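[DERIVE STRUCTURE TOKENS]
===
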Amino acid sequence: MGTMASSNLSETIHGVLVSVRSVGILLLGEAGTGKSECALKLLARNHQLVADDVVELDCQNGKLTGKSPPNMRGLLASRIFGILDIQAIFGAGALIDSSEIDLFVEFTKETADVLREPGAITRDFLGISVPGYSITANQAAEAANLIELAAHVFRAPDCVISAEEAISFGLVAK
């Protein structure tokens, strides 16, 4: 993560926070864009839920973390099934109390897919710059796969070839 911030700052935002291979990923977007349904798919793949719908952000010593409000811990609101008790469905291992936020993914209602360099999108939360990705309505069905890939890329950034390198290798046309 980038910029340092003051100690002991906090804020509450609308979103979902999941841990995918120990990478904290904040899912953002308007209501109905698929954040919670994506979180369900990730839980079914043995990833973990931190918070659904309301995420309490905290910044201490330059680290951005998120957690669920106590009255919502372990619950996920699904437009299909209603309010779900995640521990009853997936077991205690599917929940964690808090997570550092490493990436964000913005779910949009746009339909045009835009190719962007990894980390080209950043957003500030409590003075901390967090890299992110955008998932369009066309990509929503594959969001869980894309988020797992984003976690891999975060852990091994050298596995990604930049657009400039792809052009120089002749992989794509100018």
